[in-house]
Amino acid sequence: MSHDHPNHHHDHGSHGAGRTLWVALALTLGFAAVEAVAGWWAGSLALLGDAGHMLTDAAALGIGAVAARLSALGPTRRLSYGWKRAELVGALVNVLFMYAVVVLVAWSALRRLGNPVDVDASAVILVGSLGLGINLLVAWLLHRGEQTLNTQGALLHVMGDLLGSLAAVTAGVIIWSTGWLPIDPLLSLFVCALIVVSSTRLLLNALNVVMAGVPRGLDLAEIQAAMQDAHPSIADVHHVHVWSVSSETIALSAHVEMQTMNDWPAVLAAIRHRLHQAFDIDHPTLQPEVAAVDRDCARC
């Protein structure tokens, strides 16, 4: 049975991505606190809802940053993969926490629809505009930094934050120009919907990892076909399993039937190269088998 575990470049990427994520986390979390205080002072649920949305993103960034640090730790006797799945535990906690935030903000918004509360429109516009600027800066940092699944996922969260900040600014402008107060709780419900969508997507991704599902963007039949075409000596590939160890590590195991075992070193190199180039899979475990022997055994 052959293994291929070249994790050194992932560790290097994790360090680079980790630094970017820590900077993005500091900016996002700091402004989420400012927005929460300003929303409470101005009486704006839209700002409070956007602060909650930024808090979800700060949590996601924090999970990514901690996971990037922990993933560099080696395996132990009890944790054969090391701490690579720490991000999964954090993601599940993050989702449960944010669902609770949605319930609280939505409940307050529904109450305010029947009993509007005065809102300081100028404060909402100012803080919401600052939020747009912060989110644009964070998005730029994530886009130009090391590109991993962690940073790509965080970038999607930040794009949602941009919509939340825009909703807060829109609420402030409408209240300032027309005095129509229901727009504030209505747009806070919109931000709650954004939180539910992003949190549910995170939950589904986490559950897919728990169920050892095929990672997003990969097709099991396509991977199997690519492996079979990697070398002329391959008779068949079966028992193929692909799963995520973490957001940056994809593992694969498979049985490879050979016309002759003499070609196994060349076949192994060809499959490794094909998996890396086509699917970014660098953690395969492959078991060679002699096709003729297996067929004879099947008749026994």
Keywords, separated by commas or semicolons:
four-stranded mixed β-sheet; 9 helices
Give a written overview of the molecule.
Helix content is 68%, strand content 11%. With 300 residues, it is of the alpha+beta class. A four-stranded mixed beta sheet has the order 1-4-3-2. α4 packs antiparallel against α5 (149-178) and α5 runs antiparallel to α6 (183-210).
Average pLDDT: 79
Largest sheet: 4 strands, mixed
Shape: elongated
Overall structural class, as computed from helix and strand content, comes to alpha+beta
Share in β-strands: 5-15%
Secondary-structure element order, as H and E? EHHHHHHHEEHEH
Q: pLDDT under 50 segments (min length 5)?
A: 4-14, 294-300
Number of helices in the DSSP assignment: 9
Subunit arrangement of the protein? single chain
- Give the spatial strand order of the biggest sheet: 1-4-3-2
Report, as a whole number of angstroms, the end-to-end distance.
24 Å
Number of E strands: 4
Helix fraction, binned, reads 55-70%
Taking all Cα atoms into account, the compactness measure Rg is 25 Å
